[in-house]
Amino acid sequence: TADGTVLRDYGVLPGFVFPTFFEVDDAGAMAYFGESSTGQIRSLDLATGEIRDLVQLTFNYDFAFDVVPGLGYVVASAFGSATNSVFRVDLVTGDTVQVAALGGFSGPVEVVSVGNLYAAVLPDAFPFPAGGTDFVRFEAADVTSGAILTDEADGTVYSGGFNSRSSADYDPATNSFIVMETSTGTGSDSIVWKLDPAGNRESVVATA
């Protein structure tokens, strides 16, 4: 509930893991969650409580539902550290198709109502250099073309020059994003930004 009261306990995983994401579909029927300790991504039927192993993607980081029902996108460094990639996942069978090889460390992914995919492109050096992270838009037709896309070469920088990027959330009502720029030793605060529809930093929502 809004005050933090637990309404239902869906169980305990077999061992300690580092959680990465937890997303609920628009119908409120199914949830999908990942962890980076073993790379396992699972589905949860919110009515029956059934938890099912869906697919394993090493160092999975973030998830977004596709506009096509039954599909989602997962960001993961599945081929080793700083090999950030985006995979389309069948949410029933667990089948995966790689759609992008971005390189660098993993960042957030979002899909907007017209099917365009937005992903953070981060450096492969840590701490991240100041201003070295971009938020890149990939057109829906390119994402579904069958080609494996790469950073800005196959997309468009929607909003650039961030010190890092740890999360992003799309608001279809205002056609805008809320994004988290996390301090990683560059001397800046962690900042939550609201971006306008053109990708400009419109306002600061919070700092830490």
Structure description:
- The protein is mainly beta.
- The strands form 4 sheets. The chain has a 4-stranded antiparallel beta sheet with strand order 1-2-3-4, with no helix packed on it. A 4-stranded antiparallel beta sheet has the order 5-6-7-8, with no helix packed on it.
- The model has no long low-confidence stretch (mean pLDDT 93).
Q: Indicate the proportion of strand residues.
A: 35-45%
Q: Poorly predicted ranges (pLDDT <50, ≥5 residues)?
A: none
Widest beta sheet: strand line-up:
1-2-3-4
Terminal CA distance reads 26 Å
Q: Helix segment count?
A: 2
Output the structural class.
mainly beta
Average pLDDT reading: 93
Radius of gyration: 17 Å
Q: Main β-sheet, in a few words?
A: 4 strands, antiparallel
The amount of helix comes to under 10%
Strand-and-helix sequence, N→C?
EEEEEEEEEEEHHEEEEE
Q: What is the overall shape?
A: globular
According to DSSP, the number of beta strands is: 16
